[in-house]
Amino acid sequence: MTLQEIAKTLELECDSKIEISGLNTLKDSNENELTFLENKKYIKDLQNTKAAAVLVKQEHASSVPSGTIALVCDEPYLFLAKTSKLFAPNIIEVEGAKPSIGDGTKVMPNVYIGKGSSVGKDCTIMAGAYIGDNVNIGNNTVLHPNTTIYRDCNIGSDCIIHAGTVIGSDGFGFANTKDGKYIKIYQNGNVEIGNDVEIGANCTIDRAVFKSTIIEDGVRIDNLVHIGHNCKLSRGCILTGQVGLSGSTTLGQYVIMGGQSATAGHLEIAPFTTIAARGGVTKSITEPKKSWAGFPLMDHKQWLRLQGRIAKLLK
C-alpha cells in the first residue's frame, strides 16, 4: 500500500504515494520498506537507514537521512504494532496451487498440506501433521505425528522433527498503550531450517517479526526447547532439554547449552561456547571456546570453586 494510505490509517500526516512493500529493521530496510526508531541507542542506524520512511519521535526527526520520510509520532513502537497488522498475511489461503509431493514420499492419513507448499522426495509425513501454505520441505525429511509447520516456513533435507513440535508460531511481541493495553505486533517473517537438523518433541520455534528465525545445518535440539523470534542458531549448535532463547539471540557455531539454561534477548554467544545447566546468559559472550555456569554467569571453573566454598560453610 502507499505511504499515504498507511499514514491515514495511523492518523498521521503524509501525502507521499510511494509504495511500501513491508516492514523491516533500520539496518535492513530498503527503499520500499517502512521502519521505526524507539530507542535512541540505535540513532546511528537511523542516520544510515535506507528505508523509504521511518516512524520516529519529534526529538529524533532531525537524524532521519535525506531520502527517507519521517512519520513523526509520540510512540513509534506502538505505531509499528498497528502497522504490522496491515502487512500480516492471511492465516490460511483458500486459493492457490495444489501442494506438490515428491516421488517416494509417504503421507499418512489426517495430514494437511496447504496451498503452494512442496514436500521433496522420500519424506515421511506422519498422522496429524499440519503443513501450512507456501511451506517448502526438502528431501528425506521426517515429520513425526502432530507436528505443525506454519505458513511460509522452510525446512531443508535430511531433517527429523519429532512429535508435537511447532515451527513458525508467533513470536512474543506486544506494544503497550499509555493505559496499559497490549497491542499485538504481527510476526510477518518466517523460520528457515537448514539440512541435517533434528528437533525433539514439543519444541517451539517462533517466526521472526521481520525476515527469518534461522536454524543452520547440523543443529541438534532436545525436547521441550523454546526458541524466540529472530534467533539464529549457527551450524552444529546443541540445545538440551528446556533451554530457552529470548528473541534475537545469535549463537555462534557449535555452541552447547545445558538443560534449563537460557539467554536474555538481543545478545550474541561466541562459537564453541558451553553454557552449563541452568546457566543464565544476560550479556553477550565474545570470547570463544570457554565454559560458563551459574546465574549471574561466571567462568565454569570459578563457579565450581564457589560451590565448593559454599558447601564447606554448611558443614
TrEMBL record:
Gene3D superfamilies (alphabetical): Hexapeptide repeat proteins (2.160.10.10), MurE/MurF, N-terminal domain (3.40.1390.10)
Q: Where does this protein act, in terms of pathway? A: Bacterial outer membrane biogenesis; LPS lipid A biosynthesis
Q: Catalyses which reaction?
A: a UDP-3-O-[(3R)-3-hydroxyacyl]-alpha-D-glucosamine + a (3R)-hydroxyacyl-[ACP] = a UDP-2-N,3-O-bis[(3R)-3-hydroxyacyl]-alpha-D-glucosamine + holo-[ACP] + H(+)
What is the residue range of the signal peptide feature? none
One Pfam family this sequence matches: LpxD
Enumerate the active-site residues: H229
Q: Where's the UDP-3-O-[3-hydroxymyristoyl] glucosamine N-acyltransferase non-repeat region domain?
A: 18-86
Give the EC number(s) under which this enzyme is classified: 2.3.1.191
Q: Which UniProt keywords apply?
A: Acyltransferase, Lipid A biosynthesis, Lipid biosynthesis, Lipid metabolism, Repeat, Transferase
Q: Which family does it belong to?
A: Belongs to the transferase hexapeptide repeat family. LpxD subfamily.
Write out the function statement from the record: Catalyzes the N-acylation of UDP-3-O-acylglucosamine using 3-hydroxyacyl-ACP as the acyl donor. Is involved in the biosynthesis of lipid A, a phosphorylated glycolipid that anchors the lipopolysaccharide to the outer membrane of the cell.
Question: What is its quaternary makeup?
Answer: Homotrimer.
Q: Which NCBIfam families match?
A: lipid_A_lpxD, PRK00892.1
* Name the UniProt record assigns to this protein: UDP-3-O-acylglucosamine N-acyltransferase
The scientific name of the source species is Arcobacter roscoffensis
